[in-house]
Design goal:
By secondary structure, the protein is an alpha/beta fold. The protein has 2 domains: 152 residues, GTP cyclohydrolase II (Rossmann fold, 3-Layer(aba) Sandwich), CATH 3.40.50.10990; 232 residues, Dihydrofolate Reductase, subunit A (3-Layer(aba) Sandwich). 29% of the residues lie in helices and 25% in strands. It contains 13 helices and 18 strands. A 9-stranded mixed beta sheet has the order 13-12-11-10-14-8-15-18-17, sandwiched between helices. Strands 1-2-3-5-4-6-7 form a 7-stranded mixed beta sheet, sandwiched between helices. It has a two-stranded antiparallel ribbon with strand order 9-16. Helix 11 links the parallel strand 12 and strand 13.
Length: 466
């Protein structure tokens, strides 16, 4: 007669596993049932982590609005993709996906909390007003999953010290924290500020939230910039390359200036404010050395409350003057050059604080644009705004490296220098998904460059999703 088993069914059981190819590479997805909360949890694993010390681990709580629908109200979806990218770069790691929506209050209550936030309450007070704690998440399942996977110790991808404290309380050895710095924009600024002020999150936020809806900006302009920012993040996650936005002002006859090297102010006050808001929505801003010599720009964000983008100059022969305003930029200047630049010029500009990056040339001897984008990606740049000059704009477009265009049309006729010419190297595109937004007397044209035969398309007269 068989004896009854004395074993006790563990509360967490792995039920199935499968290979999951993603844009970041192949992972294995493990499914778990947890008897304690009757929930299904997941572990997305790359590489062999059994017996691994200091494995990269992200413990991520489900956020359907951010992870699935790309909501900009939070930083959850962005952190998930950043964690997948970090793990893919290291070729090993774990993302534990815990089914505790809305910091543990559930999806329906989270949507009710969103409505309270729209009335002016922050994310903590909204939860409290609904009868919940500010954060009801638990991490016992994450600890059990790490033990099931055989991970010895971890480097935790998080900004949340409470998560570190709880996991250590469950016996997980955490040897380091890897921060995930999210983008900050109009839709999540207050949320991120609350995380820092009331939930102890370790974030490096700009002194003032980058509110894009300045006094001179219409809701249409603000919405377009937020949508473009979302688009750029999805592009970066999908392609592992920075999203490139070309942005410039031209007259009705297509002129950027009267003649080469002669600056011409075309933008009105509202469109100039929009341009500064657009800068704040990008990680970097890029110009050619011709723009530096002609305009001596600062490339900062001054007309809206937002973070300055990283300034980048394409300068194949290092003609950037030592008294250029960009050398005083608060973030420092990156100059992308080639081997034909002199070592004396490199040393002199480096002594002024510039970072000199030597890259391969293209067929014309100028900095290769594909090499430039690879260098920016390696430095963590997810989105870059190209502001000029004419040759740089034309080169990005002709090389099929422009992913979006924001063009200001000023109500003037100039008869001067154009951005594009019939002899451009490569067919010029049309714009698709076109939208128009007024900005004072100017008109802003938004669209995606598309190469090939024109399709039948009626431009939209009101903003559409990018």
């Amino acid at each position: 007669m068989s004896q009854p088993s004395s074993s006790i069914t563990p509360p967490l059981v792995r039920t199935a596993s499968a290979r999951i190819p993603t844009v970041y590479g192949a992972f294995f997805l493990h499914h778990y049932n947890d008897a304690r909360d009757a929930k299904e949890h997941l572990a997305l694993v790359m590489g062999d982590v059994r017996g691994r010390s200091d494995a990269l681990v992200r413990v991520h709580s489900e956020c359907m609005t951010g992870d699935t629908f790309g909501s900009l109200r939070c930083d959850c979806g962005e952190q998930l993709h950043m964690a997948m990218q970090r793990i893919a770069s290291a070729a090993q790691g774990v993302i534990i996906y815990l089914r505790q929506e809305g910091r543990g209050i559930g999806l329906a209550q989270k949507l009710r909390a969103y409505n309270l936030q729209d009335e002016g309450y922050d994310t903590v007070d909204a939860n409290l007003m609904l009868g919940h704690q500010a954060d009801e998440r638990e991490y016992w399942a994450a600890a059990d999953i790490l033990r099931d996977l055989g991970v010895e110790s971890i480097q935790l991808l998080t900004n949340n010290p409470a998560k570190i404290e709880q996991l250590r309380g469950y016996g997980i050895q955490i040897n380091g924290r890897v921060p995930l710095q999210p983008s900050m924009h109009a839709d999540n600024a207050a949320y991120l500020q609350t995380k820092v002020a009331r939930m102890r999150h370790l974030l490096q936020l700009p002194p003032a939230p980058p509110t894009l809806a300045g006094a001179a900006l219409t809701p249409d302009l603000t919405a377009r910039i937020s949508q473009l920012q979302e688009r750029s993040l999805h592009h970066f996650a999908r392609t592992h390359s920075p999203h490139v936005t070309i942005s410039y002002a031209q007259s009705l006859d297509g002129s950027l200036s009267v003649e080469p090297g002669a600056p011409l102010a075309l933008s009105g006050a509202t469109s100039m404010t929009m341009t500064h808001a657009l800068r704040a929505a990008h990680d970097a801003i890029l110009v050619g050395v011709g723009t530096v010599l002609a305009d001596n720009p600062r490339l900062t964000v001054r007309l809206v409350a937002g973070a300055n983008p990283q300034p980048v100059v394409l300068d194949s022969a290092l003609r950037t003057p030592l008294d250029a305003a960009l050398l005083n930029h608060p973030r420092g200047l990156w100059i992308l050059t080639t081997e034909r630049s002199s070592s004396d010029a490199r040393h002199a500009l480096a002594a002024r604080g510039a970072e000199i990056v030597v890259l391969p040339p293209d067929e014309s001897g100028r900095v290769s644009l594909s090499a430039a984008l690879a260098a920016l990606y390696a430095r963590g740049v997810r989105s870059v705004m190209v502001e000029g000059g004419a040759h740089v704009l034309e080169s990005f477009v002709a090389s099929h490296l422009a992913h979006y265009a924001v063009i200001t049309l000023a109500p003037r006729l100039v008869g001067g220098l154009h951005a594009y010419h019939a002899g451009s190297n490569g067919a010029l595109p049309r714009l698709a998904q076109v939208a128009y937004t007024p900005a004072g007397e100017d008109l802003i044209v938004w669209g995606e460059p598309v190469w090939g035969q024109p399709a039948v398309d009626t431009p939209a007269l009101t903003p559409e999703p990018i």
